[in-house]
Specification:
about 160 residues; alpha/beta; five-stranded parallel beta sheet; 6 helices; globular; binds 5-O-phosphono-beta-D-ribofuranose
Length: about 160
C-alpha cells in the first residue's frame, strides 16, 4: 500500500470513452474523499499494449489500487489483475443489450488464483468502488480515514427520520 510520506494514488481505468459517464461518478467520489487519482482509457481488446504497459508499470508508478470499469465481455479488470499484484476492483458497466448482467458475470466470475473485487452494476458500483478504495487505503492513511468517516457521517445525517 502507500509507502512512507507518499499519499496513495488510485488509477481509474475504463475500456471505452462510453464508460466515462458511469466512471466519472467514481472520479467525483474520490475527489470528495481527497484521494489522488489518474484516469485512462485502456481496452483489453482494442489497445492491448496500452493495457499491458499500464499494468506492468503501475507498481513503479506508485499506484496503490486500480479501479477498472468495463462492459459486455468485460475482461479488462481480470487482465489487469493478472499482470500486477496491485488490488483491482472491477465496475460492471451497464451494457445496452443485457443491462450489465454480461459485464457483472464476466468480472465477478474470475477463476481462483487471480481475484478481482466486484461491485454493483453501473452508477452505484462506480461510487462504491471509490468508497471501497477509501476503506482499503484508510487502513494505512489517517487522512483518508478521517475523510471517509466524515463522508459516512454526512450520509447518515442526510437520512430523514420520517417520510414526507
Ligand atoms: C467495452 O465495450 C467497454 O468497456 C464498453 O463498456 C463496451 C462498449 O464500448 P463502445 O463500443 O461503446 O466503445 O470494451
Amino acid at each position: 500500500m502507500s509507502s512512507k510520506n507518499v499519499s496513495p494514488k488510485v488509477a481509474i481505468v475504463m475500456g471505452s470513452q462510453s464508460d466515462y459517464k458511469t466512471m466519472k461518478l467514481c472520479v467525483k467520489t474520490l475527489k470528495i474523499l481527497k484521494i489522488k487519482s489518474e484516469i485512462k482509457i485502456l481496452s483489453a481488446h482494442r489497445t492491448p499494449k496500452r493495457m499491458y504497459d499500464f499494468a506492468k508499470k503501475a507498481e513503479r508508478n506508485n499506484i496503490s489500487l486500480i479501479i477498472a470499469g468495463a462492459g459486455g465481455s468485460a475482461h479488462l479488470p481480470g487482465m489487469i489483475a493478472a499482470l500486477t499484484r496491485i488490488p483491482v476492483i472491477g465496475v460492471p458497466i451497464e451494457s445496452k443489450k443485457l443491462k450489465g448482467l454480461d459485464s457483472l458475470l464476466s468480472i465477478v466470475q474470475m477463476p481462483k488464483g487471480i481475484p478481482v473485487g466486484t461491485v454493483a452494476i453501473g452508477n452505484d458500483g462506480a461510487i462504491n468502488a471509490a468508497l471501497l478504495s477509501a476503506s482499503i487505503l484508510s487502513i494505512s492513511d489517517k487522512k483518508i480515514r478521517k475523510n471517509l468517516i466524515r463522508w459516512r457521517t454526512k450520509q447518515t445525517n442526510s437520512v430523514k427520520k420520517k417520510p414526507k
